[in-house]
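Quick one: examine this chain and its backbone structure tokens and tell me how the chain folds. Here goes:
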Amino acid sequence: MKAKIAISTIVTALLMGTTALSANMMENQTSQKDHYAAKLNADNFKNKAQEADAKRLHKVIDKEIKADHLAQKQAPKEIMDGLKSTIMALRALQANNTASAKQYLEEATKSFDTALKNDSKLDLVPVDERIVVRDFTGDAKLVKHIKDATITLLKNNETQAARAMLLPLEDQMTISVQYLPMKIYPEATKQAQKDLANGNNQAAFNDIVTALNSFVIKSVIIPIPLLTAQDMVLEASKLQKQDKEKALKLLTSAQDELQKAVLLGYTKKHSKVYKSLNDEITSIKDNIKGGHSVAKLYEHIKHSFSSLLHLHREEEHTNNMKK
């Protein structure tokens, strides 16, 4: 049984509404704030949105989702069955149906025992995955305008206005996987069975709730500007012989995406690698303008992008469900 996957909508796609509200709010403030609001009005965002390549956005997101699905291990059927049975037992206890709760817990224990018999080394088993995409529609210059405006607002103690302006500054995919801890969950299920057999329904209920709270969530954040820059470079590599001008424009846009990632704060741990990527793109552009072969340069930068994305995917943020 495959883990259920819930993919959110692109929460901040286009950002039109939020921007208009921010701009209207700013118009009622001081003339200094009006100056910055003018840079952030709805028309500005609209123009940027029109320039954005929506197809490219969906393309890079779909590609990353498919890659993630291929990389994820599927939970054994017995574990998914055991999890379902414990949830059914919890519902039965809520309905004061002790007999059904006992049956479901018995089924859960049997399922978990079978899974552990098949693989005694089972530890954290992935049982659910959620992918949330937040897209910032705008270039590096727009991000800088927002940050500059926010700094000025903070200096004037307009903290709430500054906070509102920073909220849209996300451009990322967050992939969160929930893991069932096999060193904890089956034992909690067996304890619930014992408590239920002793007539302590409340203790059994608490055992199951505690087990559910033991789930571990591991999240990975992938910067969308990095995915977009990679896609632009790949497209440029296919075009440079037929249309050098378009290839150069794509490479320049890729550099802007990398700069946007820097300004949005996604590059702190890998600042040298991002700078190296930018330098590689500059080298490719110079060689194209000089009429030189760039095939090997493209092959190298493709590897550089893959390596950097691997580093981001390896940076897991772990949380317990209870938190």
